[in-house]
Design brief:
Distance between the termini: 65 Å
Number of strands: 13
Number of domains: 2
Helix content: 40-55%
Radius of gyration: 21 Å
Oligomer: single chain
CATH class of the largest domain: Alpha Beta
CATH architecture of the largest domain: Alpha-Beta Barrel
Largest sheet: 7 strands, parallel
Strand content: 5-15%
CATH topology of the largest domain: TIM Barrel
């Protein structure tokens, strides 16, 4: 049974002989051929070259053609900032100053859509046994790209406009998904990191209907779907499943064992949740293999796909992902090799700031990485926006988990999830982006 068949059977909730494996590699595969990420994301030949190398080295059952949540936003008027080691990030929001519903639609010739469609066609021809994942930006995150952090206040002050904007974004990404299916994608994933940053009530109010519509459109085409979310989405998993995707994909912020009990009951496959930083980035090959085997042993082969929690960081050593493929395809041999292996704790010793002696309010935003994680980026942006009026009386610091000292910080402060926000060392917001009004009130209170 080839990887594509295995994935499609798993997504159809059939029993499969082993756990399917999908490395959500985006920028990371540029490393395999010595390219910068921004080169690969804008050149179809380099993209295909890197995808083919990822197939050789990582032995996947499925691969995303491109993991970039800014494709639609760029076409709709958002300016992007490009980096050599991550996907681009949105740096302007065309609706930030005037909340007017857009009317533009995407075409197959817009932006980087031709690159992605051509890469899909080539991969389909060269590697017919791999399940190709076509990823679109989820409608709420796309709406946030267009409106900026204002959207979190708009949900209270202009709810009907927010609904209209999200519905528009659903129509846009559904049309884009159709282009990807036409090019040959076997699975469509809606990647919406900001879903973890709102309450179940807000999900029901703004997102239940458009997501249900999106997945129904795919179902009518007999195309399986996945609902990707980053951050601690535990509170919204039942509502996500109620929109009827074939699968949901979660990261390390979610207890996958508890979550699978919910998804199994609701007839949805779950995918995840290898740790992006602690294991994949900072761990050894053996650490990754051990984590994979533990997940496969615990979750079994039914309604589960082994995968990273989200887009793999650029600097993850290729040998770690190679090791994961080995653990999937030769589980018992790898298990035997790991019998005497003991993980080493190599996080640095750190000192916390002397919060009581600060002459300013210190806001620390703990992120996976604000450049690559949309939820993290908007959490950081909310802190920067709210602090701007206070000048040098407020300092905002990002603590990205891409650096081991910030992972050590999380352990020392007693924080388990990202993105989160602390004010003068006190944890204030965990996987929930505050409104500017809330944050300004908290800043003023911290000044007293």
């Amino acid at each position: 049974m080839d990887g594509k068949t295995l994935i499609l059977k798993a997504l159809n909730h059939e029993n499969v002989p082993r756990t399917p494996w999908v490395p959500y590699t985006g920028a990371q595969i540029a490393n395999l051929k010595g390219y910068a990420a921004d080169e690969m994301f804008q050149d179809v030949d380099k993209l295909v070259e890197c995808l083919l190398e990822a197939d050789v080295q990582y032995a996947p059952d499925g691969l995303p053609v491109m993991f970039d949540l800014q494709v639609e936003a760029e076409i709709l008027g958002c300016d992007l900032k490009w980096y050599p080691n991550t996907p681009p990030t949105v740096c302007t929001h065309p609706l930030a100053n005037e909340f007017v519903l857009p009317t533009r639609r995407l075409t197959k010739e817009d932006g980087r859509i031709p690159i992605i469609m051509e890469a899909t066609r080539r991969l389909k021809k060269l590697k017919p046994g791999i399940a190709l994942y076509g990823l679109v930006c989820g409608p709420f995150t796309l709406a946030s790209h267009l409106r900026g952090t204002n959207i979190f206040m708009d949900m209270y002050t202009a709810p009907e406009q927010v609904k209209e904007l999200v519905n528009y974004c659903e129509e846009v990404v559904s049309e884009y998904a159709g282009f990807l299916v036409e090019a040959g994608c076997d699975v469509i994933g809606a990647v919406d990191p900001l879903v973890s940053q709102i309450s179940p009530a807000s999900f029901e109010q703004f997102l239940s209907a458009p997501f249900a519509t999106f997945f129904e459109r795919l179902r009518s085409q007999n195309v399986p779907s996945t609902f990707f979310v980053c951050g601690d989405a535990t509170k919204n998993i039942p509502a996500m499943c109620a929109t009827r995707p074939d699968a949901i994909a979660i990261d390390e912020n979610v207890d996958i064992v508890a979550a699978k009990k919910v998804t199994d009951e609701l007839g949805v496959l779950i995918s995840g949740n290898l740790q992006l930083t602690i294991t994949m980035l900072f761990g050894s090959q053996q650490d990754n293999q051990k984590a994979a085997i533990e997940l496969m042993d615990t979750l079994g082969t039914h309604n589960f796909i082994l995968a990273p929690g989200c887009d793999v960081p650029f600097n993850v050593p290729p040998e770690n992902i190679v090791g994961l493929g080995m653990a999937v395809h030769n589980k018992e041999a790898v298990r035997k090799a790991l019998e005497t292996y003991v993980k080493k704790d190599e996080l640095p010793e750190i000192e916390l700031p002397d919060y009581d002696s600060l002459d300013h309010v210190l806001i620390e935003v703990v992120t996976i990485d604000a450049q690559t994680c949309a939820a993290c980026g908007y959490m950081l942006a909310s802190a920067l926006d709210a602090s701007a009026a206070f000048g040098d009386k407020v300092k905002v610091v990002e603590r990205s988990m891409m650096y081991p000292e910030n992972v050590a910080f999380m352990g020392k402060i007693g924080l388990a999830n990202a993105p989160s926000m602390l004010i003068n060392g006190e944890i204030k917001h965990v996987s929930l982006i505050p409104t500017s009004e809330t944050l300004e009130t908290e800043i003023k209170a911290a000044m007293k």
